[in-house]
Design goal:
Number of domains of chain A: 1
Distance between the termini of chain B: 17 Å
Strand content of chain B: 5-15%
Radius of gyration of chain B: 22 Å
CATH superfamily of the largest domain in chain B: Periplasmic binding protein-like II
Oligomer: heterodimer
Structural class of chain A: mainly alpha
Number of strands of chain B: 9
CATH topology of chain A: MetI-like fold
CATH class of chain A: Mainly Alpha
Number of domains of chain B: 2
Helix content of chain A: over 70%
Shape of chain B: globular
Order of helices and strands of chain A: HHEEHHHHHHHHHHHH
Strand content of chain A: under 5%
Strand order of the largest sheet of chain A: 1-2
């Protein structure tokens, strides 16, 4: 995707960067001179940020108020909020919105739960621990296109391995392509496969920061593995979990490559749009249908939706934190 | 967009097919018939310039000029011209790039490939940015070379501006599995098939016979998908997706109406494997025999060869007629942007490539069917036979007859996207049993998103 249409990476970058706070370079004594140098150090980032995030972000907003096609880019017609009105009264948008939500839920929730379990296991002493730790990251390192093509083979309604097994077990074959829920499940499974290991590693890093003496103390007090998990691991991991949820939410909202490749590169999200997502709809509007104004309106709507989702996440977790604290 | 991309991929396979020698083209030899039609202005010489010039040629997929040896040949004709080919693999990506460059007016090559999928847009929105081939010194001779409809597709509706000269076209027939037809007890001789395949209704009847056969393979269906029927029939009316004033008007088009009726009738008769084109399962179907027939422009033969492999050799054949009358699928042009600093040299190259002699070479050395009428009627082209199809079938003669009679309704700037949207709905009808009327409404809904 070109930079003009993607406002989301800006949001993604920000929230991804936030947890990794860079330690302040300024020594206490020479504060004013030091902070001036610090500004020089961070300047390149902000220049790049301004050129590739802020400018496209504002330009996208401007384009979204026009009727414009790439082929006739210089003939922009001012339409005000008509693109947004078109979008909000348009069932393609709401279909994509619902699909993004459902695929997001059926991929992110199991993904994070499984990742937590895997991290918990890998935190124990077991033989070949390093091997497993590297192995769970392999899917993340695999190219998305390659992975989706393999999954496409597995889920192929006619020749796929999964339907072949179903057939062997005398179960009815499933149309993983054209039926809505099976197709959404199939796409969610690609997402899960790819990101579970990554999240497990994040959780593992969080786990290792939890004071081991607490576990020793807990077992002296007679807490079992489950008790330890609930009362030590989970509270200790809370910031990490919030981070993982925020990142997964943003990732789910931007889901694009999997549904595109799952229909062999067609940007319609299945013959009835059964797995069309917001990211893919934006791409279809912009690059297949050549309607940049409408695509920009979708981009901005997505930005607002993601922002809202992240805020809801944060508010909920803050409230729980306060309750817990 | 999709159709173009994959069509271009298919073109690559055609080149592979011919170089692999599976399409044996007999009767070659003396095609040094001089074409005097494209001699550029005498003062600058036949190469458009006497200076040393590098021409940038922007193409997508495989046009096959280099593979057919034409760049080398041109360097012998015009030693002062060096050709630099800038390739983009997918025509969709190429078109996005070209649009960006046309909008900004910079970065354009000296020669730009133009495909049937976006020629309508170029003619409508960018005709002023390309050299008008009605005003070049050899305009009259250039125009006389081509099938009139091929020339018209690259021209504004008043005929005043023409943005490029044709390269290839895609005369369309049906390719079928001879062995599966025989197993099902269907006729396979040309004389009978010429009758049975004459109309789409005849094809559907043949399909019913195939499905009813007790001796056909259990998992095999007659046609790949009803889209094969729709896409073939939609351009056989007086209008396809655009009306006569070149505005998209799908709901009132006679071509769409009759093609939709035929396709949904075929879906109802359950003669289709329900495999949409270019998808993975469709590709596999060539070898596994999931379907016995499909729509087959010339370049599709190469695609079949690459998908079905050596095991399919001799099992396939080409129907002697196009159901419902001759039709075309695919084809390209070469245009010269006015922004080019080497316009005269670029025009000379484009004219040279469209000569009879060179278009014959493009068929014999690459499997690209000529858009130059004289080339298409050349005995060398007509004599082509194939070991893969038939075997021994006179491919050149069959496609020559079809090419001669092609008629084309107005082509619109959204045809490719509209067809993709309609095909998706037909897939719903044939695989999910969606009510055809509801599906048509959904298609119109999706089309409104495209046309805006």
């Amino acid at each position: 995707m070109t930079s003009t249409l993607t406002t989301e990476p800006a949001a993604g970058d920000l929230s991804r960067r936030r947890p990794r706070r860079t330690p302040s370079a300024a020594p206490q004594g020479r504060r004013s001179a030091g902070s001036r140098i610090a500004y020089v150090y961070i300047l390149p980032f902000f220049l790049v940020f301004a050129a590739f995030s802020v400018y496209p972000w504002l330009d996208t907003a401007w384009i979204s108020l026009h009727n414009v096609r790439l082929s006739t880019y210089d003939q922009r017609e001012w339409v005000g909020l008509a693109n947004y009105k078109d979008l909000l009264t348009n069932h393609f948008f709401w279909n994509a919105f619902r699909n993004t939500l459902t695929i997001g839920v059926i991929s992110a929730v199991p993904q994070l739960a499984i990742a937590l379990g895997i991290a918990h296991l890998l935190n124990h002493k077991l033989r070949g621990r390093t091997f497993f730790r590297v192995a769970i990251l392999m899917p993340y390192a695999t190219s998305l296109a390659a992975a989706t093509v393999i999954f496409l083979e597995l889920y192929s309604p006619q020749y796929g391995l999964i339907n072949w097994f179903l057939d062997l077990a005398h179960l009815p074959k499933v149309d993983w392509q054209n039926s809505k829920w099976p197709a959404q499940f199939a796409i969610a499974s690609i997402v899960m496969w790819r990101w579970t290991g990554y999240n497990a590693l994040i959780f593992l890093a969080g786990l290792q920061a939890v004071d081991q003496e607490l576990y020793a103390a807990a077992s002296v007090d007679g807490a079992g593995k489950w008790g330890q998990f609930r009362h030590i691991t989970l509270p200790g991991l809370r910031p990490t979990i919030i981070f993982a949820i925020v990142v997964s939410t943003i990732g789910s909202a931007q889901l694009f490559g999997e549904p595109l490749l799952y229909h062999g590169g067609l940007p319609d999200g299945g013959s009835a749009g059964q797995y069309q997502t917001l990211g893919l709809l934006m791409y279809q509007q912009g690059w297949a249908n050549d309607r940049l104004g409408l695509a920009s309106a979708t981009a901005w709507s997505m930005f607002v939706i993601i922002l809202a989702a992240v805020l809801v996440n944060l508010v909920i977790s803050r409230r729980r934190e306060r309750k817990a604290g | 967009m999709r159709l173009n991309n994959t069509r271009r991929r298919a073109m690559a396979s055609v080149a592979a097919l011919v170089t692999a020698g599976t399409l044996a083209l007999t009767g070659c030899g003396s095609d040094n018939s001089d074409s005097n039609s494209a001699a550029p202005a005498a003062d600058a010489g036949p190469c458009g310039t006497k200076d040393n010039v590098t021409l940038n040629v922007g193409l997508f997929g495989t046009f096959g000029f280099k593979e057919a040896g034409l760049w080398d040949k041109y360097h012998q004709v015009c030693p002062n011209i060096t050709i630099k080919e800038n390739d983009v693999e997918q025509s969709g990506d190429y078109w996005t790039k070209l649009k960006t460059r046309l909008a900004s007016g910079s970065g354009l090559d000296d020669v730009q490939g133009l495909e049937i999928g976006f020629i309508g847009d170029v003619v409508k929105n960018h005709a002023d940015q390309f050299v008008n081939f009605n005003e070049v010194p050899n305009a009259a001779a250039d125009k006389a070379e081509f099938y009139p409809w091929k020339w018209d597709m690259a021209s504004t509706s008043d005929g005043a501006k023409t943005v490029g000269l044709g390269t290839d076209i895609g005369p369309e027939s049906i390719c079928f599995r001879k062995d599966l037809f025989e197993k099902a007890g269907l006729p396979t001789d040309d004389a009978t098939l010429a009758k049975e395949f004459a109309t789409w209704d005849g094809v559907i009847e043949l399909g019913k016979k195939y499905e009813a056969s007790a001796t056909k393979p259990a998992d095999s269906h007659f046609i790949d998908s009803v889209n094969s029927i729709f896409n073939g029939a939609v351009y056989q009316g007086t209008e396809a997706y655009d009306n006569s004033s070149n505005e998209p008007d799908v709901a009132n088009s006679d071509g769409v109406k009759s093609a939709w009726a035929l396709a949904t009738k075929a879906a109802d008769a359950k003669i289709s494997a329900g495999l949409p084109q270019w998808q993975d399962a469709w590709n596999k179907g060539f070898a596994s025999g999931s379907f016995a027939a499909l729509s087959c422009p010339t370049w599709m033969m190469g695609y079949i060869t690459s998908q079905a492999g050596d095991a399919g050799k001799g099992k396939w054949a080409v129907a002697p007629v196009t159901p419902g009358g001759s039709a075309n699928w695919g084809g390209s042009w070469l245009g010269v942007p006015k922004a080019s600093k080497n316009q005269a040299a670029a025009i000379a190259l484009v004219e040279w490539l469209s000569t009879k002699e060179n278009q014959v070479t493009m068929w014999t050395n690459g499997g690209h069917w000529p858009s130059n009428q004289a080339a298409a009627e050349d005995p060398t082209v007509g004599a082509a036979t194939s070991d893969y199809f038939g075997p021994g079938q006179n491919i050149g003669k069959i496609y020559g007859e079809i090419a001669k009679n092609i008629t084309i309704p107005p082509t619109g700037q959204f045809d490719t996207q509209i067809q993709t949207a309609v095909n998706a709905q037909l897939t719903n009808v044939e695989t999910k049993g969606t009510n055809p009327d509801d599906a048509f409404k959904s298609a119109l809904d999706a089309i409104k998103q495209i046309t805006g």
